[in-house]
Specification:
Elements lengths: L6 H10 L7 H12 L5 E6 L5 E6 L2 E6 L5 E2 L4 E2 L4 E2 L2 H15 L5 E3 L6 E7 L4 H8 L1 H6 L2 E7 L8 H10 L4 H12 L13 H10 L7 E3 L5 E3 L4 H12 L2
Parallel strand pairs: 8-9
Antiparallel strand pairs: 1-2, 2-3, 3-4, 5-6, 7-9, 8-10, 10-11
Helix pairs in contact: 1-2, 6-7
């Protein structure tokens, strides 16, 4: 993923900006594509500050001037209201990327009509991931539906990766839930292979910049890194929902 950080590169962007008669979106797009022809710009829109534009690349957000010359890599915070104005856009991007995967490609626990649904990137070998899953009935009892995406941190070819594939290839949705629970308990499960979404899940995790597991993503796209116990998570989700 493109990461633009140096002032020197900002100057380069300025030199590559398009003619002044082009609109802001065209100038910004042309400047970035001149530096990185393969860049995948998802969205360009006006920023909360006059004269700046938000540029969304994957799940990363940068700010650029309308002429495509200068960029800002960071967050915009309204000090008067003490509000982070960048996080809502990042959350929106995370939500969209996760929705692109589809729940049919996840291993889900809890009823579809639960009060809250969270998506959890998990590594079967991760201690805190196992702790979270050991309380899966408590999450469900607190009104939280848990949808798992696989993120074996050791990468493709690792034991955790093979376990993730085997869980997915266990059979139907119920068989996958049973295999997930057994694997999380440290039990040996039958090693299987089939068409699976594990590599796609991992690519999404990298796109989101994940550094560890478990990583919890709420319905609105808020990222909560690490383990959170069921009751505390339910309280946080209620607060986010304004309950």
């Amino acid at each position: 993923m493109l990461r633009i950080r140096s002032l020197a590169l900002a100057a380069t962007l300025g030199c590559l900006a398009t003619a002044v008669h082009a609109g802001p979106e065209q100038q910004i797009r042309a400047a970035l594509e001149a530096v990185s022809p393969d860049i995948e710009i998802r969205d360009i829109r006006p920023a909360p500050i006059d004269g700046l534009y938000e540029v969304l690349v994957g799940s990363e957000l940068m700010y650029m001037t309308a002429d495509g010359r200068y960029f800002i890599d960071g967050r915009i915070v309204d000090l008067k209201t003490r509000t982070d104005l960048t996080e809502p856009r990042l959350a929106e991007a995370r939500k969209g990327l996760i929705e692109s995967i589809g729940e049919e490609s996840m291993v889900s626990f809890g009823p579809a009509d639960a009060a809250h649904t969270v998506t959890v990137f998990t590594d079967i070998e991760c201690g805190y991931c196992r702790k979270l899953h050991s309380q899966i009935d408590d999450y469900v009892a607190n009104g939280i539906r848990v949808r798992y995406l696989f993120f074996p941190r050791a990468g493709e070819g690792s034991e955790a990766y093979r376990e993730a594939v085997s869980v997915w290839c266990a059979g139907d949705a119920e068989a996958r839930r049973e295999a997930m629970t057994e694997a999380k308990q440290g039990k040996s499960i039958e090693m299987r292979k089939c068409d699976n979404p594990v590599a796609e899940h991992m690519a999404l995790g990298r796109e989101l910049g994940l550094r560890g597991t478990p990583a919890i993503v709420t319905e609105d796209g808020t990222l909560i890194p690490g383990y959170v116990d069921p009751k505390r998570l339910a309280v946080e989700l209620d607060q986010m929902a304004g309950s």
